[in-house]
Design a protein that fits this description.
76 residues, alpha/beta, 3-stranded parallel beta sheet
Length: 76
Amino acid sequence: MVKEIEKTGLPVAHLCTIVPISLTVGANRIVPTVAIPHPLGNPELVAAEEKALRRRLVEKALAALATPVEGQTVFE
């Protein structure tokens, strides 16, 4: 689906927990996340720390969307 959306000219940031799967499906902008049961958070953190973690991940995804790429790129 990521590749089909990008064909229309819209950039896509694929946030994922397992980068090799994203590479296999052909995503161009890959943003690694936390863990399979909680990709965009960590329930073991206090609320303020988890909010900061989520903000960092979303900001990284937004930066990936604004970055021109040639082929697959993982944004660490």
